[in-house]
Amino acid sequence: MDEDTLQFYRRNAEAYAGWGKAPSTRLTGFLGLLPLGGAILELGCGAGNHAAVMLARGFALHATDGSPEMAEIAARRLGHPVEAMLFDELDERDVYDGVWASACLLHVPRDELAGVLTRIHRALKPAGIFYASYKIGHDDGRDSIGRYYNYPSPEWLQATYASAGPWTQLSSDTSQIKSFDDAPATMLHVVVRKDS
């Protein structure tokens, strides 16, 4: 994780948690691919908006966020434990039916992303489902408030996934959003299944 970006979220946890961000409409489709009551790892849970839906649907959720301050806010809101964990601390193997990583892996430096994806691949059970979203671009850089983004192209991202382990792509589509700094962005949403 880029240290300046992590510090941004640590300093601005309350403001970011108060940002009116509705759960992704893609969450329902993701959950529909998992066994009822299945085990989910959420990376970068933020204020817990997606986690609340997963818990309400009866899934066994391991919610995490890189910012201890954000994790504390989410745990308080959810009444459920949230672990302060960086992506490169993920060491589990064959544990999760699904991994949900909404708008968080886009902060991983380009030269570190394949390693993080390898850790996610290992943590998933065979045929486990992995969702992640990224801001599309061609060169990494920072936004107007200093957060680092890897800004991948779809082609670069596909090659990076392939280098991290065998996957089957289930879907890939885009949407338009307005970021926390009010800048418009095109998001790429990727759903893959772990191949054994």
**Assembly state (oligomeric):** single chain
Order of helices and strands: HHHEHEHEEHEEEHEE
Rg calc: 15 Å
Number of contiguous helices: 7
CATH superfamily: Vaccinia Virus protein VP39
Largest sheet: 7 strands, mixed
The N- to C-terminal Cα distance equals: 28 Å
Q: Biggest sheet, strands in spatial order? A: 3-2-1-4-5-9-8
The figure for the number of domains is 1
* CATH class (first level) name: Alpha Beta
Strand content: 25-35%
Any low-confidence stretches, pLDDT <50, length ≥5? none
Mean pLDDT figure: 94
The share of residues in helices is 25-40%
CATH fold field value: Rossmann fold
What structural class do helix, strand and pairing data support? alpha/beta
Q: Give the beta-strand count.
A: 9
CATH architectural arrangement = 3-Layer(aba) Sandwich
Topology at a glance:
Blueprint: H1 3-11, H2 13-17, H3 27-32, E1 39-42, H4 49-56, E2 60-65, H5 68-78, E3 82-84, E4 96-101, H6 110-123, E5 124-135, E6 141-142, E7 148-149, H7 154-164, E8 167-178, E9 184-194
Parallel strand pairs: 1-2, 1-4, 2-3, 4-5
Antiparallel strand pairs: 5-9, 6-7, 8-9
Describe the structure.
By secondary structure, the chain is an alpha/beta fold. It has seven helices and nine strands. It has helices at residues 3-11, 13-17, 27-32, 49-56, 68-78, 110-123, 154-164, and strands at residues 39-42, 60-65, 82-84, 96-101, 124-135, 141-142, 148-149, 167-178, 184-194. α4 links the parallel β1 (39-42) and β2. α6 packs across α7.
Core attributes:
single chain, globular, 196 residues, Rossmann fold, alpha/beta, two-stranded antiparallel ribbon, seven-stranded mixed beta sheet
